[in-house]
Design goal:
By secondary structure, the protein is of the alpha/beta class. The chain is built from three helices and 28 strands.
């Protein structure tokens, strides 16, 4: 590269650095350190404001500020009485808004606007296309709202029209997609023909506060002025519950919060808990139970030598407590004792069965022991042939019961491809239950004692040993006539073809 070329490149670099420094200095302290600076435009040097205190748009400095901003906070300078979009030097029709000038459309960058207290007129399309404007407060001095003044303010949800307003232009809130509430301080303005198109929006200065008692006693709703506070109602009541407070969207409600929309407050409850204490009355101690309202107590266990708990009672010793009764208060249950006797179970070569302590005059519970190779028949006292009747025999003394067993045998079934059948446990002297298996493509013939099918099994025979039964089957054969015909035709064709071939060969030799 030539010397002149190097000098030209260095000059360009220097100019770029100077331009960058100038831009930073122009933005100054209004630029934050992040990549999306918050620029506040508030000095008169950023606006075109005439001697008549009418604001008609950005100045060159304001355009530079807005051009380099991602979003803007705008403070209209004190003293401005009107906002009127600039028609431009060539007398074209008004631009999109007061913040759109000479081809620089910055309206979409506007997020916040502060208006001076003396402002009287908001002109046609003044804030049109400020699609990110989140909120705006109109001062009490405002008299006129121009045509389409807030056209396309998509993020605007609520606006208050002061009672001083006398003139409302058409299309004032056209395309304000998220506008939910228009507060009209002067009720006479509600009939203004330019507001009637928006009557489907919440169109008053009142909010309804509804109380969901959530199972408690009803609480009347309150209708209050917009931006005022709710009067805290008397606490509701609910049987078995303690009132904890009111919730708004799962958060504790703050009663000093101004209400700007219809809301529903929901009662929060905590279920009551009760303590159930047990007086074992000389028996082993029993731990207390904590029971939630409406639930039931678990029957406790207490022991005392030679005695058993007949029942538990509250205040009347002769009245047993019903453990299915829902608990609704703290209670104490006292044990009622009676003489008890021991029922022992003699299980020769069988599973162990625990003794039972049975209250005098009551019945024992029949256990069912097990023993390999045997089936349990019943319990008896002295005579093996007389079963003990658990349902009709009251216990009035210590007693020992003996298990009666009967030998059992295992009968197995070999189905040879048929349904699998469970083994049968058959008591000695009894009979096998006849089973009929199935097998695809076969017909079941019967059961045999041997795998060679020499001896069919007689199901009237008493079982005296373990054994296996064998299923006999006959295959199901079905002749398909179509296959027979096809085979016949094939064979005939083969024979005819062979004859023709022989004739041809013979003629060829001749």
């Amino acid at each position: 590269m030539s010397k002149k070329g190097i000098i030209a490149v260095l000059s360009a670099v220097v100019l770029m650095v100077v331009a960058s420094i100038s831009l930073v200095l122009a933005i100054g302290h209004n630029v934050s350190a992040d990549s999306e600076p918050v620029i506040t435009v508030k000095d008169r040097e950023y606006f075109e404001i005439g001697d008549d205190n009418i604001l008609r748009g950005f100045s060159e400095s304001g355009i530079i500020q807005a051009r380099n901003a991602t979003w803007l906070n705008i403070e209209i300078p004190a003293g401005v009485v009107e906002i009127q979009p600039d028609v431009g030097d060539d007398n074209f029709a008004p631009m999109l808004s007061v913040f759109s000038r000479r081809g620089e459309d910055c309206a979409a960058k506007v997020v916040k606007v502060s208006l001076p207290e003396v402002l009287q007129v908001i002109g046609d399309m003044a804030f049109a296309k400020c699609s990110n404007l989140q909120a705006i407060t109109l001062p009490d001095a405002v008299l006129t709202l121009g045509n389409y003044a807030f056209y396309g303010c998509d993020q605007l949800e609520t606006i208050v029209i002061p009672s001083t307003v006398t003139t409302i232009g058409s299309g004032l809130f056209e395309s304000c997609e998220n506008l939910k509430r228009i507060i009209v301080e002067d009720s006479a303005l509600k009939t203004n023909p330019n507001l009637l198109p928006y009557s489907s929006i919440v169109f008053d200065d009142e909010c309804t506060v509804t109380f969901n008692a959530n199972g408690g006693t009803p609480v009347d709703e309150q209708v209050i002025n917009y931006n005022s506070t709710v009067t805290k109602p008397a606490d509701p009541t609910r049987e078995g519950y303690t009132f904890k407070g009111w919730k708004l969207n799962d958060s504790d409600y703050e009663w000093s919060t101004p209400v700007t929309e219809n809301i529903t407050l929901t009662a929060e409850w905590e279920i009551k808990q009760y303590t159930v204490t047990f007086n074992s009355n000389g028996g082993s101690p029993v731990e207390t139970q904590t029971i939630e309202h409406g639930n039931v107590v678990s029957a406790p266990t207490s022991t005392m030598a030679g005695y058993g708990v007949k029942y538990w009672y509250t205040t009347n010793e002769n009245e047993a407590y019903d453990f299915t009764t829902p608990v609704t208060q703290d209670i104490t249950l006292t044990a009622k004792w009676v003489v008890a006797y021991t029922v022992q179970f003699d299980v020769p070569q069988g599973s162990t069965v625990s003794d039972q302590l049975v209250n005098e005059g009551e019945n024992a519970t029949m256990p069912v022991p097990t023993r390999e190779g045997y089936a349990f028949e019943y319990w008896y006292t002295d005579d093996e042939s007389v079963p003990f009747n658990f349902e009709q025999t009251a216990i009035n003394d210590n007693v020992t019961l003996h298990a009666k067993w009967i030998k059992t045998y295992v009968v197995m079934f070999n189905t040879y491809g048929g349904d699998e059948l469970d083994d049968q446990i058959v008591k000695a002297g009894e009979r096998v239950l006849k089973e009929t298996p199935t097998r695809k493509g076969h017909t079941f013939v019967g059961w045999y004692k041997d795998a060679e099918y020499q001896e069919a099994y007689d199901f009237t025979t008493a079982v005296t040993s373990d054994f296996t039964l064998h299923a006999k089957w006959e295959a199901n054969f079905k002749v398909d006539t179509n296959i027979v015909i096809a085979v016949a035709i094939g064979v005939a064709s083969l024979v005819i073809g062979t004859i023709i071939l022989v004739v041809i060969i013979k003629k060829h030799k001749d």
